[in-house]
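Morning!

As promised:
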Amino acid sequence: MTRIYKTLIAIISITAIAVSCSKDVPVDEDGLLITERQECFVSNFELLGSDFVTVRAAVPVIDTTAQTINVTVLFGTDLKNVYPQFTLATDCKLDPKVTGRTDLSDLANPKKYTVVSGNRKIRKEYSLNIKFQ
Amino acid sequence: MRFIKKNIAVLVVFSTLLFSSCQKDEYVVPDPVSDLTNDCIKRTIGPNIVSLPIEFAYAMAIPKSKGKLVSAQVEASIAGATGTYLEHRSYFTNTSGVDVPVTVGIPSSNEGKATKVTFSVDTTAATLRYFYVIPEEARGQSVTFTFSATSSNGQTVSYKMGPYTIAKMGIKRNIAVSNGNLAYVSIENMTAYTAAEAAANAGKVDLVYLYRATPTTFTHALVSPGAESIYLPGVTLPSGVNRSTKVRKVFNLQDRNLANLQFGIYVDDKDLQEVDLTDAPNYALGLRAEAGTWVETADKKYKAYIFVNSVNANGSAVISMLRYTL
């Protein structure tokens, strides 16, 4: 009996040591992989209405230097109920997150979105400027 | 030693369980039908809406040696509306997939809650379809059905179906609207009015249909009379028409009942109960065929789903609606 227990303890110990030796994967507070990438920009932008159809009247103008996104929306767009969609550089993430229907109706105070690079060290704040057609 | 014995006992029990669980069940040939029997399926799916039919297929059979079918009957817990009938024809599907009718009885008659067909041919098996047109009295209630068949040897069988909940919402299909003419839509009455009629029903007009070619994204629109004037260009509202109705555009929600049985999506009571239009605008521009709008009336008495069946660039459209009383 004592031999069986000893063997069991030995197996568990070896497994524990093996697991503890595996390399930790760096993840951020959202469980997303932190990489070494430094790119930090918005590459494309889309704005959908409550019917999930685009409300853009033209291609958005994204200025990565001035960190602005200028969008012209269709006449009559209900900006209280829109779905913004950002396309970001590889491994980047957006802050605040877009979780669903968003209110962008306050045109005088453009909403700000921050792009965070893959290595989570660079943050760039973009201003979302909307105007009607 | 005791420990090893215990382990062996456990092992034996598990092995026995394992072997017994793998035993194959012998297939038993079911007994042939020896008496009058019946079966039923409900053919319609989706919500049960007042004025629309619920369709069933009722099958009955008896061995030839025992007799033939004499009659079939359906009794609903709430009498069906006009148009309720039990088919006097049995259908088979031909090689092209087309249902071909064969007359087996005399056309059905309704007596109160019951609908009956008497067989006129010598037959031992038939499947009859039953169309129950949901009456106004059944709105929001549950309905059950008892199907029964009688054979020449005096036997009777019956089959219960339901209960089925009848939706609270109402439906109105194919309402023609046109720019400047039949432009005033009433949710309460589920109809479109002219300006003169709208003035007479001012408190019931919830939306104005209008078509504008410019700006190009305006096109077909449902705008509440209480909306800002920029959304009602060139419109002079009839006196007293001023309600502000909440409207939210939807796309790809082609309710099967509203879209004339073209799609497999259904809007039900629950959808209308749960849709939150608190922050919805009071206009919907740029509507096109197969688009839709959720609507809530200014007095919060009704919620509705309006589906655009078709649009015409001459400034007209056909809409259909489901209306739920809150």
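The two ends of chain B are 76 Å apart (CA to CA).

Hope this helps with the figure draft.
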